[in-house]
Amino acid sequence: MNGQEISSLIDEYEINPNTMVVMPLAYGSKIYSQIWELEDEFISPFKPIDIIKKSCTFFGSSYEGLNDMEELKKYRLIKIHTFYN
Predict the structure, then answer these.
(1) What CA dihedral angle connects 64, 69, 74 and 75, to 10 degrees?
(2) Which end of the chain is more exposed for a tag (fewer CB within 10 A), N or C?
(3) Which CA distances in Å does 81 have to 73, 77, 78, 84?
């Protein structure tokens, strides 16, 4: 945007293994998403958080669930195996 023409405007997008970044892009008074993949670039009229939440749901999770998992990773849970003879 910043004087550039919207070249690849898309209505639907799911985050996939080729997705490198989904970042906010100001367009007037609205926030769009600029999506960079390995070999392509797209603009979506949705906010990045909306794309992320929709992708989580599409793949059978939730944004809140992923945040909870990230919080648990901070504690470095260690599994202890007990063997009895």
Answers:
(1) 120
(2) C
(3) 19, 13, 10, 10
